[in-house]
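Page 42, continued from yesterday. The earlier attempt failed because a stray header line got pasted into the input along with the sequence. Redoing it now with the clean sequence only.
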Amino acid sequence: MAKEEKARAKKEQLKGKAKETMGRAVGNERMTAEGKAEQRKGDARQAKEKGKDTFKH
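This time it went through. Structure tokens are written below.
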């Protein structure tokens, strides 16, 4: 399950980055903000999984 969550986190980060970049390219501030939010969500999920790994070892 941890690998699935890590993959999900990475996917959210990449999707967010793409959305942010697209938003900046077309001048859409809302899309840029949504992209940043998705990246932060992915970062938080990744941090949570890293924390779990720390306690397992």
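Notes: Residues 6 and 50 are 9 Å apart (CA to CA).
Reminder to self: strip header lines before submitting.
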